[in-house]
Amino acid sequence: MALRFVAKDEKSGVNGSPTVFVDEETSDLVLQGWKIDSDTQADCLAFGPIPDHETVVRIPARMVKAIREACDVAERREFR
């Protein structure tokens, strides 16, 4: 898997997270984010279980532009 770096949250400092990537082979988005709290997890579980092979992360709203850019990258790669 080759990840293309798109952006890192500029307010996260040197330890840097959240981060947005695009998998260059599959065009999947790969998101690194903050662990969710128990209240958020409970809200998510109201819609169904979170399988053991999945997780939920929180990405700040200020990263929307980076996620849009990642979507554009993924779309361009997907339709080549």
Largest sheet properties: 3 strands, antiparallel
The topology string of helices and strands comes to EEEEHEH
Backbone shape: globular
Residue share in helix: 25-40%
Q: What low-confidence regions span 5 or more consecutive residues with pLDDT below 50?
A: none
Strand pairing plus helix content: what structural class?
Answer: alpha+beta
- Strand tally, please? 5
- What is the CA–CA distance across the termini? 18 Å
Residue-averaged pLDDT, rounded?
A: 90
Number of helices: 2
Tag the structure with descriptive keywords.
two-stranded antiparallel ribbon, 80 residues, single chain, 3-stranded antiparallel sheet, globular, alpha+beta
What does this entry show, briefly?
This protein has 80 residues and is of the alpha+beta class.
Draw up the topology in text:
Elements: E1 3-8, E2 19-23, E3 29-32, E4 34-35, H1 38-45, E5 57-58, H2 64-78
Antiparallel strand pairs: 1-2, 2-3, 4-5
Q: Can you walk me through this structure?
A:
The protein has helices spanning 38-45, 64-78; strands at residues 3-8, 19-23, 29-32, 34-35, 57-58. It has one domain (3-78). The strands form two sheets. The chain has a three-stranded antiparallel beta sheet, with helices on one face. Strands 4-5 form a two-stranded antiparallel ribbon. It starts with a strand and ends with a helix. It contains two helices and five strands, in the order ββββαβα. The chain is an alpha+beta fold.
